Structures are given as C-alpha cells and as structure tokens.
Amino acid sequence: MLDTIDLAQIGMESGRFWAALATLALFGIAYNLLIGYLHRNGYNDGFVWLEVVGGVAATLLIGAIVTGIHTAILYLLFFAISGTPMAIGDIIRYVRARSQEKDE
To answer: Is residue 5 part of a domain?
Structure first.
C-alpha cells in the first residue's frame, strides 16, 4: 500500500523525481508527434523496433537522473537482453514482407 511506502526511500520526495516525470510526459508527447510524422510520410516503414529502442533509451536516460547511472545501466542491460530478439524478429519480418511484395 502506498501509505506504508517510505516515499523518501524510493526517491518520490525528490524534485528530481517529479522533474523526471514531467520530462517523460513531455518526451512522450513529442515522440508520439515525431513517430506520427514519420509514419504519415512513410519514413519509418520497417523501423518499429528502432522506434521502441529510442523510446526505451530516452526513458532509461531520464530515469537515470532519479535512480542513478548504475541502476539505469542495469535496466539497459535487461532491456537489451529482452529486446534484441524482438528487434531482430522485426527486421526479419520486414525483409520477408518486402520480399513477398516483390514476388507478387
């Protein structure tokens, strides 16, 4: 329960925490606008995996301000290990889809 959590222990009393949340919210809005622009103009076809990597990287970077660089690096490793198969899979799916379009 929130009332039993020491906010100081998890850094929520810190101005850095609230600044990071505000920055992430603004980043999310701006990044969504950028992705929408890229999508409308056909610039991101086949690069969904890279869009996800960019969003996660920004979140980890901004989160490092609150959690510290060591924790951010640890989570970067976690995301890299879990995300690499998805990134490779997305590239393979894109290449196969383009190959099938050429064959038709």
So the answer is: no
Total number of domains constituting the chain: 1
Structural domain includes residue 1: no
Structural domain containing residue 64 = 14-103
State the DSSP code for 39: H
Q: What is the pTM of this model?
A: 0.75
Question: For 57-84, how does the pLDDT look when each residue is reduced to its tens digit (9 = 90+)?
Answer: 999 999 888 888 898 899 999 999 999 9
d(CA 62, CA 80): 17
With a CB cutoff of 8 Å and minimum separation 6, the contacts of 62 are 20, 23, 24, 27
99 lies in a domain? yes
In angstroms, the CA 98 to CA 87 distance is: 17
60: number of CA atoms within 13 Å, CB side? 18
